Known about the structure:
This protein is mainly beta and 144 residues long. The chain has three helices and eleven strands; from the N terminus they run βββαβββααβββββ.
Amino acid sequence: MTADAHAPYEGYARPRPDLDHYDSGVGTGIFLVATRFTLADGSELTGFSSPAPSNAGEDFIGYAQPAITLPAAIVPLWFLFEQEPPEDFARQYYSLLQRKEADVFPLDFVATVPIAGSQVAHGTVHSFQGVVYDGKDFRFVERT
């Protein structure tokens, strides 16, 4: 599969994933798909998310981990914190988006490519969300 590579990706096989056999529920790795985001103000942005098991329930956003991509930054909507985030944590992301909270949330997202089997890659997000993990327990947090 490799040869005398002299430039990025030269001499390397980059196989396309088999969409019929991917199943995030059995831990086959992270699989990101192109995603369209429609913000509360009606504007559309692009980004990525990870298809989630259809039975993820309340934990769906943690599986999907949607993120908006901007020319100079990525705006994640899901986080893992080691300690409680400050109340103004989201301010930096509104600044990157150049919008106010009411212009961003709630937002809808949907994958722009076909998703295999019972995977789900669409949803609605009402705030920046995540969990605080203190080494023992997970606690859900939201910031707007």
